């Protein structure tokens, strides 16, 4: 199968579902990552070099996980709300046509980060279940320091219904996180290696596993049972 992972910023994909990406790649699936923003122009204003550094880190991290290719759209970091909704849609639709994925992973709609929420909305547009669409499943994933910091409101809370066993891939996820040197934080920050391991243990405990990553299944199209 072909799988497309959407990420607002370089590192979201690794922190959110690095173990699953490694597992899917190891199982023979073709995984592609699409990073929508350059991920740093707001945080590191005036430092143009950091954009190239982030891309190097992204390519290394995704290579560790076995990703076939990383695509970059270079949309403005933390300013997706300054763009027309249709522009974000078109960027995702462009790579949907190129890759023709069977499964799409995207951000949770209740994340505190507004870029994440806008990408979720555009994903729903780009994956509309029209005749001829390649997409059979759409999932959302959680990102530490964004998903759990969203408002505790009924429509915004991340309530996973799918758990993927990543016990054999925790080391690869750790190495991929460490490849994003510019984003590493010290514990107890949610984006520290230790915190991510605790998150994955907590997800696993919910379903009787050592380590897992949690997802919300948004849509599944089933044509037959085998």
Describe this structure in words.
The structure is a single chain. With 226 residues, the chain is an alpha/beta fold. The chain is globular. 44% of the residues are buried. The longest helix is centred in the first third of the chain and has 17 residues, at 49-65. The model has no long low-confidence stretch (mean pLDDT 94). Helices cover 37% and strands 19% of the residues.
Helix content: 25-40%
Q: Structural class, from secondary structure content?
A: alpha/beta
State the end-to-end CA separation. 16 Å
Please give the largest β-sheet.
Answer: 7 strands, mixed
Morphology call: globular
For the CA atoms, what is the radius of gyration? 16 Å
Strand count:
7
| Mean of residue pLDDT values | 94
Number of helices: 6
What is the N-to-C succession of helices and strands? Answer: EHEHEHEHEEHHE
Give, in spatial order, the strands making up the sheet with the most strands: 3-2-1-4-5-7-6
Into which percentage range does the β-strand content fall? Answer: 15-25%
Low-confidence stretches: none
Main attributes of the structure:
226 residues; alpha/beta; 7-stranded mixed beta sheet; globular
Q: What's the short story on this structure?
A:
This protein is α/β, with parallel strands linked by helices and 226 residues long.
Task: Write the SSE topology.
Blueprint: E1 2-7, H1 12-26, E2 30-37, H2 49-65, E3 69-75, H3 85-99, E4 103-107, H4 114-126, E5 137-141, E6 162-165, H5 170-179, H6 193-206, E7 212-220
Parallel strand pairs: 1-2, 1-4, 2-3, 4-5
Antiparallel strand pairs: 5-7, 6-7
